[in-house]
């Protein structure tokens, strides 16, 4: 039986307020964004903890503050964080920061095109944190991921379509899925998503394929009809729910 499909919200990503005036940055803002998104139908959360300057960080105090605030707002909802190299370029330092976390997320994404992804993923598994294996299109991420001895232990495959062209992205996504399905980890759950111009076409494809999906201000700043998101992530979740409902 296939794993249950989830709808994940990604409320902020590596973006800043310059990208969207309502981007949640502080723990309190993330808590409100999470509450509204879950009320709209989100079942899982992937967020980027920020420091006081609004920059992504893996530092334990900021990770703890974000997780604690969000969990208080949406108890029982799985919450994950990023481990992106842009926050801490040195992979050994990233792994050390993970090992120093005082509050643990339910899961964390690890981008396998980044050097040292295995070190970071091993640190997460050692601490009992689920790993979302971030596999970017147009990179050698799948090959590098499959060379990791613990590839079969991840929570899910996070298939990320970096092709932002709405016309070509579905084909890019299909090629990435074909690569994943031919691998030894083909039985693992897959969450497929695009970004910016490809976010909605790829979400439509993911729904048709029966895969888990995500949406949020990290991935896209406009609704399916091109209208800019005026308020918060809940608008995006409502639109995604409509896509899913039409597919049932």
Walk me through what this model shows.
The structure is a single chain. The protein has 248 residues and is an alpha/beta fold. It has one domain (7-247): TIM Barrel. 37% of the residues lie in helices and 15% in strands. It is built from eight helices and eight strands. The protein has helices at residues 27-40, 60-73, 91-100, 117-126, 141-146, 169-181, 199-208, 233-247; strands at 7-9, 44-47, 79-82, 107-111, 130-136, 156-160, 190-193, 212-215. It has an eight-stranded parallel β-barrel with strand order 1-2-3-4-5-6-7-8, surrounded by six helices. Strand 4 (107-111), helix 4 and strand 5 (130-136) form a beta-alpha-beta unit. Helix 1 runs parallel beside helix 8 (233-247) and helix 3 (91-100) runs parallel beside helix 4. The relative contact order is 0.16. The model has no long low-confidence stretch (mean pLDDT 95).
Task: Break the fold down into its secondary structure elements and pairings.
Elements: E1 7-9, H1 27-40, E2 44-47, H2 60-73, E3 79-82, H3 91-100, E4 107-111, H4 117-126, E5 130-136, H5 141-146, E6 156-160, H6 169-181, E7 190-193, H7 199-208, E8 212-215, H8 233-247
Parallel strand pairs: 1-2, 1-8, 2-3, 3-4, 4-5, 5-6, 6-7, 7-8
Which terms would index this structure?
37% helix; 248 residues; globular; alpha/beta; 8 strands; single chain
